[in-house]
Design goal:
By secondary structure, the chain is an all-alpha fold. It has a single domain, classed as DksA, coiled-coil domain (Four Helix Bundle (Hemerythrin (Met), subunit A), Up-down Bundle). The protein is 68% helix and 0% strand. It contains five helices and no strands. The N terminus is likely disordered.
């Protein structure tokens, strides 16, 4: 569901930023939708690769320890790729939902505006720069 251009200008922006225009919001929405489509395709491909690796490892009779280790490493790598793609997909879907419900641009930690420029550069952002920096210091 697309909101009207009147609703788009009511999305959160920082005090030093202009309100969202319908065109700017449409561009962000298009980018997020393209991300969703790309990430869904990536996930299907990765999951197919994982299934192949699992099948291959179960029929690995006669493999030496190096072969078994390589196969385990490959499975783990594919699993990590799938987790990263799944996380990015969920972020993109959540961003689209937030556009629709009018909460896009609000930091999920402090409740302040994330910043339109930040969102245009990284549309899946859920934290303002200050909260993101604090989060990264903790990790």
């Amino acid at each position: 569901m697309n909101k009207s251009s009147d609703a788009s200008v009511s999305l959160a922006v920082r005090d030093d930023e202009s309100p969202w225009t319908a065109e700017e919001l449409a561009q962000v929405r298009d980018e997020l939708s393209a991300d969703v489509e790309r990430l869904e395709g990536e996930l299907k491909s990765i999951e197919s690769d994982i299934a192949g690796l699992i099948t291959d490892s179960s029929s690995g009779a006669g493999d030496d320890q190096a072969d078994l280790g390589t196969k385990a490493y490959d499975r783990e790598s594919e699993y990590n790729l799938a987790q990263n793609s799944r996380r990015a997909l969920e972020q993109a879907q959540r961003a689209l939902a937030r556009i629709d419900d009018g909460t896009y641009g609000i930091c999920e930690n402090c409740g302040q505006a994330i910043g339109k420029e930040r969102l245009q550069a990284f549309p899946r952002a859920t934290l303002c720069m200050q909260c993101k920096q604090q989060q990264e210091k903790r990790h």
